[in-house]
Amino acid sequence: MNHPPIIDVIIPAYNEEKSIPKVIAEIPKFVRHIVVANNNSTDQTQQAAETAGAKVVFEPQKGYGKACLTAMDWLKKQEIQPDIVVFLDGDYSDYPEEMRELVQPILDEKADMVIGSRALGQRESGSMTFPQVFGNWLATTMMKYIQGAKFSDLGPFRAIVWKKLLDLNMIDQNFGWTIEMQIKAHKAGLRYTEVPVNYRKRIGVSKVSGTVKGVIGAGYKIIFTIFRYW
């Protein structure tokens, strides 16, 4: 890049008042905007995020992808667009300070998208449930044999060139968001890679792995998305 890269962060959040300040505090200072998409939280997520210095946008319709799309809409309206966008969860399970390593392949012009792989990094005991580990293995194996896409994880901690992201025309509004991005990036011929990231127990209860309904819903949507873009 011919100028210092403009890097923005998107954090979808639902009832993360206890964790969101910690996440925001550990995001590297090279980030311009931290956009928290408040996904109809019933606690003080909005106030906590704003106090910590983030821009908060409100999305009343529940859904991980829907929250991400709303945050993207806010970025589209900015006079100066970002060069790179990083997606990060608001539950403090990721290590925001690892963002430097995450974006480096893009800064080196070796990749258009970088996935933070928990499978390649160190996971704290209990940080991922068996359904999560198995689901990631199944999804990435299916992607390899059906689409030819080589990934080890569907990790939410990821970076992508903003213009490339817009070209993907993301549409999923819930559990299929991460895998949709990876499949579309592969099919579009984007250069992608993975870097190891560490993972710890989240603060609070997972909206996906914390309930039987969440596990089944996420599993169904991931498999549906794989075949949708076959």
From TrEMBL:
Regions annotated as coiled coil: none
SUPFAM superfamilies: Nucleotide-diphospho-sugar transferases
Pfam family, one: Glycos_transf_2
Gene3D superfamilies named in the record: Spore Coat Polysaccharide Biosynthesis Protein SpsA, Chain A (3.90.550.10)
Origin superkingdom: Bacteria
Glycosyltransferase 2-like domain sequence ranges: 9-159
Lineage: Bacteria, Pseudomonadati, Bacteroidota, Cytophagia, Cytophagales
PANTHER family: RFBJ PROTEIN, UNDECAPRENYL-PHOSPHATE 4-DEOXY-4-FORMAMIDO-L-ARABINOSE TRANSFERASE-RELATED
Protein name per UniProt: Glycosyltransferase family 2 protein
